[in-house]
Specification:
Elements (H helix, E strand, L loop, with lengths): L3 E5 L23 H11 L4 E6 L4 H13 L3 E6 L21 H6 L9 E5 L2 E2 L2 H14 L5 E8 L10 E8 L5 E12 L5 E3 L7 E2 L5 E9 L2 H16 L11 H12 L2 E5 L6 E2 L5 H14 L8
Parallel strand pairs: 1-2, 1-4, 2-3, 6-12
Antiparallel strand pairs: 4-11, 5-13, 6-11, 7-8, 7-11, 8-9, 9-10
Helix pairs in contact: 1-4
């Protein structure tokens, strides 16, 4: 069985102020997703699917895709408006992609096996890929099964602005029981992590709450059910038609409630860090340098 990693790299990076998916972050000019790919290959992944925009195709292949093709099977999928489900016409003024549910769905013709999903602009840690690779093999032959690598909220916020996180609850048997996409999270002046979406004073959140960073594992069943849910969302969900997005934590929570989707929460010692704002780059670059210095990675990937 192929062990497949889907990398979502089509986002616009509006808060970052540029195309962070292909920005040079590592000490030798490495792109952040190169660390995820390096760790994934070491964990046994042997197929990589990149979800990008067509306008990125040439530069993306030159910077990273062609290098990876020498080491693993590589496929491309394109997140564009012509890849939306039939029966929906996006507003002419819309320029923003429709979110991570759509991003994964764009790869339906490239994947026929259990697969993992990650963001291009996050660092997930070696242990996370080992745990997910093992879980994907356990998921083979199943339909309504999924997995998620969880991280502590306190380790995933930015000092440079608010972030969005899928705040999770886990049942006693180790499965996900609830995940809520939560917006405008940051520490207040007293150091308390709060959700400022619906309250000017903020709603306190637990530092040790588990959160989703979009590191999910799915079976191909995802594609048939996601297409139906995405079409319903596009037609019926409230919100600004020029900005609303359908995201993976929201879909996963719906599927747990509607069809009893079982989502295994994978516990690891992995440490996450990532880039939301341009000011985050210096911190992430410093953390990557420490990993190279400690021997976790070779001098140059």
């Amino acid at each position: 069985m192929k062990t497949t990693l889907l990398i979502m790299a089509a986002g616009l990076g509006s808060r970052y102020g540029g195309n962070k998916q292909i920005d040079h972050i590592g000490p030798n000019g490495e792109i952040l997703m190169e660390y995820s790919i390096y760790d994934a290959l070491a964990a046994g992944f042997d197929k990589i699917v990149f979800v990008i925009r067509k306008s990125m195709d040439q530069v993306f292949r030159e910077m990273i895709g062609d290098k990876i093709a020498a080491k693993a099977e590589v496929h491309y999928a394109y997140q564009e408006y012509d890849s939306l489900p039939s029966g929906f016409e996006p507003p002419r003024e819309r320029t923003k992609p429709y979110g991570t549910v759509h991003a994964v769905l764009c790869a339906k013709d490239e994947i026929q096996e259990p697969f993992a999903v990650i963001n291009a602009d996050d660092y997930y840690g070696k242990d996370a890929f080992v745990a997910m690779a093992d879980c994907l093999h356990r998921m083979a032959g199943k339909k309504e099964a999924a997995a998620m690598v969880a991280y502590y909220l306190k380790n995933t916020i930015s000092e440079n602005g608010t972030v969005t996180r899928g705040v999770c609850e886990r049942s006693a048997d180790g499965y996900l029981s609830r995940v809520v996409e939560t917006y405008k999270i940051k520490r207040d002046a007293d150091g308390v992590i709060k959700d400022f979406e619906n309250s000017p004073s903020g709603v306190p959140l637990d530092d040790d709450a588990l959160v989703s960073m979009n590191f999910f594992g799915f079976t191909p069943w995802y594609f048939e059910t996601a297409e139906k849910h995405l079409l319903d969302y596009l037609k019926n969900a409230p919100g600004d038609p020029l900005k609303k997005e359908y995201v993976l934590p929201t879909l996963v929570d719906q599927l747990m409630k509607e069809v009893g989707l079982k989502v295994e929460v994978l516990s690891t010692h992995a440490v996450w860090f990532g880039i939301t704002y341009h000011e985050d780059k210096a911190y992430v670059s410093g953390e990557l340098q420490k990993l190279h210095d400690a021997g976790a990675y070779p001098k140059k990937l």
